[in-house]
Amino acid sequence: MTKQPRLMRLTLALAILSVSLLAGCHASTRDYEPTDTIHYDASYDFSDKNKIVNDLVESLKNRSPLAARNDRPVVIIYNVANRTSEHISTDLITDDIRQRILASGKARFVNRIQRETIEQELSYQHGGDVTLETRVQKARQVGAEYMITGTLRSITKDEPRQVRLRKRKLQYYSLTLELTDLETSLIEWADSVEIVREEAKPFVGW
What we know:
- This protein has 206 residues and is an alpha/beta fold.
- Helices cover 33% and strands 27% of the residues.
- A five-stranded mixed beta sheet has the order 2-1-3-4-5, with helices on one face.
């Protein structure tokens, strides 16, 4: 007689556990603002990208030579070199910087990425199918006065082995940006943004 109640309790406990596990398997979503600061670990993320762009755009706008110019000089921006061990899309950084500087009215940018497409369109227009009055003239493109380049670097430092409940890691990122005068090869502006973050993870857990 005692075995049956125990079996029933065991069956009930297993059923409750199964329901709990199934409920935990359902996906959930939550919306955030793009400007929110969110870090799941010490690795580079979109919050770091936002900080880098915000700090460097403010510096570029408010310091010479752009701050002293009222004629919107033409700038070309190249990809930021990724010198970290992570796969980081630095195009997001340069795209946002270009967009923000354009919106500020401090400079104009050469469309470097679409040069091949522009050349194809010009060749089509001058191939005989477009009227003379409407086709774009060749050799009228504007050369850049300044060039923006940069480098993203990182350093990872793990805490030395010792008796502890949590494993700690220190992550460092640094992005340096430079504005070079193409005629003189002189660096007219340079600045950097540094990010230092500590991560602590328990040795046991999900």
